[in-house]
Amino acid sequence: MNFENIKLGIAPINWTNDDMPELGGENTFEQCISEMALAGFTGCEVGNKFPRDTDVLKKALGLRRLQICNQWNSYELTTKSLEENIQNFTRLLDFLEIMGAKVIGGGETGNSCQGLNVPVFEGKGMLNTDAEWKTFTTGLDTLGKIAKDRGMKLAFHHHMGTCIQTIEETDRLLNETNPDYVYLNYDCGHFHFAGENPVTALEKYISRTAHIHLKDVRPNVLERVHQEKLSFLTAVKQGVFTVPGDKEGCIDFPSLFEVIKASDYQGWIVLEAEQDPAKANPLEYAIIARKFFNGLTGI
């Protein structure tokens, strides 16, 4: 196949950071979506400054020919009841369904250290027993079936600081959940950060992937994360992530796109490279990534 069934989106976290609202706090919702469109993207995910009134949001996006393609959901299956998770999940499904999205993303935050001031490699969330894994995967299956029954896909995001961070953990997640209910939100930046080969991971998981995030990693900053035992959020503020096409990055994107091209993947590829907007102008970096994507895919 070629890339005619692929759409390119972008995440608002490049403008305003959900985990650290002080990063990009000066950037407005209107600036964010206007610059997304100006850079040449056709879709976006949902950020903390996006209005929740669907009529207002649809009008603002429609003026810029943008559409919502996904939103992060914080699963808390390790710390809250399944009933609470179903309530939160269903509310977000209601919103995304109205906005025309077909994917609901997110990762397990219940036992995560991603938002804590602890070393990301030492304080990560864990599932320690078979019983904990069973509760977790059964819960995901339940939520995934709810999504499927409404014509949507649950795309689970492996993420630094969480119980699903490595290829080994991702393997177990996918092996112990129903492939009709639970898919992967693949992220090359998080796999590289975790010490995995992003190309190998994509080759392994592309047939189970419902959503793709692409970001790059600055290896010099990642080395400091290890040496100085930095937290995840400190690593982000220090610039561990950058956009595809930035010469400071190190991920093999041509090989990633070859894997996608050879697959049956249909859906969104989303640029998601959280940086400090005061250090990395969001529009400038979005244009860098958009030109880079076009050079590799023709779209």
From TrEMBL:
Pfam family, one: AP_endonuc_2
Annotated Xylose isomerase-like TIM barrel domain residues: 37-281
Full protein name: Myo-inosose-2 dehydratase
Annotated GO MF terms: myo-inosose-2 dehydratase activity
SUPFAM superfamilies according to UniProt: Xylose isomerase-like
Keyword Lyase: yes
Organism in which the protein naturally occurs: Dyadobacter luteus
Enzyme class: lyase
Coiled coil listed as a keyword: no
EC number, as in UniProt: 4.2.1.44
Record keywords, A-Z: Lyase
Source organism superkingdom: Bacteria
Gene: iolE
